[in-house]
From TrEMBL:
Residues 2-51 form the BFD-like [2Fe-2S]-binding domain. It comes from the Bacteria. The keyword Iron applies. Its cofactor is [2Fe-2S] cluster. This is Bacterioferritin-associated ferredoxin. InterPro entries: BFD-associated_ferredoxin, BFD-like_2Fe2S-bd_dom, BFD-like_2Fe2S-bd_dom_sf. Belongs to the Bfd family. One of its GO terms (molecular function) is 2 iron, 2 sulfur cluster binding. It comes from Moraxella porci DSM 25326. Pfam families: Fer2_BFD (PF04324). The keyword Hydrolase does not apply. Gene3D superfamilies: BFD-like [2Fe-2S]-binding domain. Keywords: 2Fe-2S, Electron transport, Iron, Iron-sulfur, Metal-binding, Transport.
């Protein structure tokens, strides 16, 4: 699904960047240019960031 229409970025590209170590909005903006034009995608990008962070915390807790 498209997240950032302005820069033709899909959710899978954002998830791939997060899995590769990009960990913040600034990093995603630098890497994929999401949220750097009209800004309409920022809430959805933030949701994907939050989801990734929650999953990372859950994995850390399970590993402990």
């Amino acid at each position: 699904m498209y997240v950032c229409i302005c820069h033709d970025v899909k959710d899978t590209q954002i998830k791939t960047a997060l899995a590769a170590g990009v960990c913040c909005m600034k990093g995603l903006q630098d890497t994929l240019s999401v949220g750097t034009c009209c800004g309409c995608c920022i809430p959805m990008v933030q949701d994907l960031l939050d989801e990734h962070s929650q999953n990372a915390v859950a994995i850390d807790v399970m590993a402990s």
